[in-house]
Amino acid sequence: MTPNGSVPVPSCGQRSAAEVDFRKVMGSVCTPVSVVTTLEEGRPHGTTVSAFASLSLEPPMVLVALDLESDLLRIIRRTRRFGLNVLSAGQSDLAMTFARKGADKFAGVSWGAEAGLPRLIGVAGWLACEVEQLVPGGDHVVAMAVVFAASHDECSPLTYHRRGFGTHAALVAEA
């Protein structure tokens, strides 16, 4: 705050202290890593996301944040369906593959179609979703979707924390 009580506005290209601190706080939050996929005209599409969450149990719903500039978002606006592939601990290579730009993300990737959506092989969890609502949120759009199929494997999930991949292990309570 300046002496007159106003909040200084960063000049073009600079980040405010609040934005820098926000990034640091969010970077210290351990998040699951997932790949959102869809099919359009028989061709698979996908992108890595770290912003998704359970929204409701009745009906079962999730929310996923997709970048406004995402090619996948444009496709999901048309198809209104997506698969949510929760990556397992050993799949950081897939996270990086689907995080990059380009149309050939599925080249060399093991996947199959389930419920009409691409499911990556070896994931810790998988959800098939029907978009109910798309809500703008800053530089992203939040897709709220009803889950119509789900499955899981008993393996540890891939997580992202402080700019690095890892996993999560539940603490075992002593008897």
Automatic annotation (TrEMBL):
InterPro entries: Flavin_Rdtase-like_dom, NADH-dep_flavin_reductase, Split_barrel_FMN-bd
Superkingdom of the source species: Bacteria
Domain Flavin reductase like: 26-167
Pfam families membership: Flavin_Reduct
SMART domains hit by this protein: Flavin_Reduct
Keyword terms of this UniProt record: Oxidoreductase
Protein family: Belongs to the non-flavoprotein flavin reductase family.
Entry protein name: Flavin reductase family protein
Taxonomic path: Bacteria, Bacillati, Actinomycetota, Actinomycetes, Kitasatosporales
